Amino acid sequence: MQIAKDAGMKYLVFTTKHHDGFCMFDSALTDYKITNSPFKRDIVKELADACHKGGLKLGFYYSQPDWHHPAYRTENHARYIEYLHSQIRELCTNYGRVDIIFFDGLGGKAEDWDSENLFRIVRQLQPHVIINNRAGITGDYDTPEQRIGKFQTDRAWETCMTICRQWAWKPNDETKSLKECIDTLVKVAGGDGNFLFNVGPMPTGEIEPRQAARLKEMGDWLRRYGQSIYGTHGGPFAPTPLSVTTHKDNHIYVHILDWRGNTITFPAIQKKIVASSMLTGGTATVRQTEGAIEIFVPKAHQQELDTIVVLELDGPAAEVKPAVAKL
Question: Is the CB of residue 159 less than 8 Å from the CB of residue 193?
């Protein structure tokens, strides 16, 4: 939990059961669970307690497919649906407040899981919860996987992506560079999404030190520049390969991730820019005309990770119509 907080994370989603059917919680419905293993303890409870104590939002991943249950995808599949619903009832009853339910249906349809009643159970027990879109029902938000979602401001979405190449821990797996991690985080925010960044614990249950170190680097960056990410919305300018923007109140945060020279140009907006500054240090010259916005940053003040220019407007940035920057 401390690693997550040091990384700047605000919520956590834990795999309570994956496709193999093994339960990481003390379910009363099966013996195929962690409390029957040499570990013996209910890690979901320990994690939930730590999450609540640490002030992070808590989410549960749960796979509807179950390769271990004898009734799954057989003529007795109705028995499996009853088991699935009962396990979700356990997760939503025994671990305090749950903020997110992340289903993972491998292309299944709503009738495969009786999802209408499944959602009803979740919402009755945890009325404030948000549910993703992987149970054959639209749910509350979209979940692009291992890719950055599209610029989408009319419906919530969350990119889920691995810090290495695969979801589970693997010795000597290739870790994303800090530049890749920051670029992804910023591009997700600029598209108006959230970022669910996966780490797979080692067999000891620990987060691999090099992954923990990378997460801490991201947290260090967010402590300096998080105002341009936390609580913002994407846009008003649509993302490009070179830049994205986020906004909050009367401010637009221009994130320039790659430079082609010293100037970047954006379309004209309906608001007047009354002030500008560099969140990442240095100076920028901002020129607003009826036809465009030009931002000039000398090479000495261009950052390798992300150069952030703050534009203060004479009114709410949310009222600016989305537009595309010129490369």
Answer: yes
